[in-house]
């Protein structure tokens, strides 16, 4: 029988419908999905052995949940995906403000309607997508917003006394009866507003001004918060924390591979960008390494965290930089270059909070430093470290001796960010041949990554203080480090 054809209370009774609390409903559906080995939280990566099992255990325990974690740790996404654990449709009394169950009405409207209409009481079906309410906690949120208040207009229009239950205007929480209700950034909610949640969480009723109102709300609560908010912008009052049965800690990806998967999944790359721009594997890894360096940086506030949105935004800007070059040069395609990483700086500066705001290490300089550190980390991970006398990955005293010798003899290489593909490749071809270097890079070396690797070697040598890299307008120049030390600009700086 198609449940959507059931339109009255009498028909609902005959169908065998059984009243079920939302927590039991979610629990039953979770059990079924676990038995069928379905992926419950699709698109959430890196939590398979940590956060997700804890969330599932909390659901099986029929708990209200709080997710604690730094920004960009998929807390809100997990909350929104819980909708998939709801039944597809549930019956409600038609016209009810608070989704009254026809077999267990709680509002005066539904109770009176059923008393008058009996089995002819009209019902309608509420889809799971309409059973999710999300509220961002801000300092201006009031008790009336969440719980409700007396509506003088309703009282005047219906000629009702202020003591009549019908004059109540319900807030978001009563309207979320039989739904999932999420409060994001809970500590930002004023303490007196948090207190108003005590009864709802424990006794499952509400209090509105002077009303003696017993309203047994049935809600699955889920809260999110940054753990540092307990001491920064606000705090979660202790009795409220005590009433939230399960507290679950989220975290950043614990491996580079997971970080890469998240970025590739979330980045909004157009089909034309994907087809026209080649992104070497090392370029993708370099983006992730920037976030890793930021999380370990002494200049970046660890309490604030470094969101996964940094790498997503940075990757999108990296692609945009290459696309802009294609447009300017009227070319059909291109490959990501190291010079394109200048374009990710705006994605970094807006995603980090500095420990020393206003000091000489401004966000722009810190962003540049993070990129340089990321380049060095990736370079020394795959290629011999030139700063050591004898490389661990090579039996030769210095893998890069021939390259460095050319620089010491006056060689200089300039790479402009907007060079055509042909000009860019010619400069690097004239610089050195990869096959002249005893570097085991077969796994990385593909037809489309040759020039990126050559440029990475130049930047890597510079970051390891073997040559000097200087910024020129819209590009970089590489030369012998001694030439830089003897330059007038360097000597003037030393004198100052």
Low-confidence stretches: 393-397, 490-496
**What is the overall silhouette?**
elongated
Could you give the order of strands across the largest sheet? 4-7-8-1-9
Q: Helix/strand/pairing class, anyone? A: alpha/beta
Mean model confidence by pLDDT: 86
Describe the structure.
- With 496 residues, this protein is of the alpha/beta class.
- The chain folds into 2 domains: 3-249, Rossmann fold (3-Layer(aba) Sandwich), CATH 3.40.50; 256-495, no CATH class.
- Helices cover 40% and strands 12% of the residues.
- A 5-stranded parallel β-sheet has the order 4-7-8-1-9, covered by helices on one side.
- α11 (256-266) crosses α13 and α16 crosses α19 (450-463).
- The protein is elongated, with a radius of gyration of 31 Å.
- The relative contact order is 0.09.
Would you kindly provide a brief summary of this structure?
By secondary structure, the protein is of the alpha/beta class. It contains 21 helices and 14 strands. The N and C termini lie far apart (87 Å).
Topology of this structure?
Layout: H1 9-14, H2 22-35, H3 51-60, E1 65-68, H4 75-81, E2 89-93, H5 108-117, E3 123-127, E4 132-136, H6 143-146, E5 148-150, H7 152-157, E6 168-170, E7 180-184, H8 191-195, H9 198-202, E8 220-225, H10 238-243, E9 246-249, H11 256-266, H12 271-276, E10 277-278, H13 281-296, H14 308-329, E11 334-335, H15 345-349, H16 363-382, H17 401-408, E12 413-416, H18 421-431, H19 450-463, E13 467-472, E14 475-480, H20 481-485, H21 488-495
Helix pairs in contact: 11-13, 11-14, 13-14, 13-16, 16-19
